[in-house]
Structure formats: structure tokens, C-alpha cells
Amino acid sequence: MPATPVINLRKGHAVRYNNDVCVVTDTELKTPPRMASFVQMSVRSITIGKMYNLRMTSNESLESVNLVKDNHEFSYKDGDGYHFIHPETFEDVLIGEDKLDAKTRGYLIEGQKYLVVFADDVVAGIELPANIIMTVTDSPAGVKGDSANNVYKEATTESGMRVQVPLFIGPGDKISVKTEDGTYLGRAN
């Protein structure tokens, strides 16, 4: 693959660093006064999970790695990690806990489809949809007379994630949650 200037790299891009495939997790262009600009970036190795903090001049380059995204259904979690099944080939893809952060794990629901990301035929992680339908499993009852505008309570979803929801939401209700920040979007059917 061709080299890509580090100034053009964004979160989610895959690069080769230290003879390992890494995914960019954060990048920022810094231009201090009376100094040359540089790129401060963090990359995570997809094989060993190690984080690297890099400081490179804006004219340096890193080798790009091709990312492939494929739909898989989350099947179950066991001691080895998280199992995703390809819907057509029924191939089981195992993703270790080290490749999924706590936020991402909170959105995993059995039977839901996710994009599994591969870099050089190695699993790099998963890509969450913009929002996801979750079932509320536990929610305190709303207090009568507590009906002022924008009053929220904490509810627990089927994955164990906690979401702030309006008072009228109760156990068994399906809600839509924005995966970017975990906010309640509305009731779902």
C-alpha cells in the first residue's frame, strides 16, 4: 500500500507502524508559535493491543493498510471473547476483549448485526451503527406528580448499560440509543 502523509490520517484509519498493523485512535495537528507544525497521534496495535503515542512532523508518512468491513451477527460471549457469526457462511469470528473498549461492549446485543473490521485479514474491531434498539430491563417507577419537562431517570438495558430515559419508560420497553454518546433518542417498536 502507498504511504499516507500523517497530516491526512484520521481516527479509524489503519497504518503499519513498528512492523505491526495499527488503527489510529486519535490525531491532532499542533502548530506551536515559532516552531514547525507536528501531528500528535495515538495508534493501537490490532495484534497485541498496545497503544503508541506518536509525534511526527506534518510531512512524514506512514504506510496505509486496507480495511475491509463485513456484516456479522453478535452471537454470544464466553471466556475466550465475543463471537460474531457471518450470516451467509456461518463462519465464527472471535474478537478478544482487548479489541473492544467498555463503551463498545455496552452496545453488544445477541442477534444484532455489526460491521466487523478486518485489516490485513486480522480482526481490528467492530463498527457500531449510529443508533441501536435496546430493551430496558430495570427502571425505577416514576413518581406521581413528577411530570415537569425533561425529567429523566436512569434505566438499565439488556446489555447492562445505563441510559437516562424519560419517566414514562419502564421495564420491557424498547428504546433507541445513540451509540456516539449513549443518549436516549426515543421509543422503538
Automatic annotation (TrEMBL):
SUPFAM superfamilies given in the database record: Nucleic acid-binding proteins, Translation proteins SH3-like domain
Boundaries of every Translation elongation factor P/YeiP central domain copy: 69-124
Gene Ontology cellular-component annotations: cytosol
MF-aspect GO terms: translation elongation factor activity
Keyword annotations of the record: Elongation factor, Protein biosynthesis
One GO term of the biological process aspect: peptide biosynthetic process
InterPro entries xref list: Elong-fact-P_C, NA-bd_OB-fold, Rib_uL2_dom2, Transl_elong_fac_P/YeiP, Transl_elong_KOW-like, Transl_elong_P/YeiP_cen, Transl_elong_P/YeiP_CS, Translation_prot_SH3-like_sf
SMART domains: EFP (SM01185), Elong-fact-P_C (SM00841)
Elongation factor P C-terminal domain boundaries: 132-187
Entry-linked PANTHER family: ELONGATION FACTOR P, TRANSLATION ELONGATION FACTOR KOW-LIKE DOMAIN-CONTAINING PROTEIN
Protein family membership: Belongs to the elongation factor P family.
The protein, known as: Elongation factor P
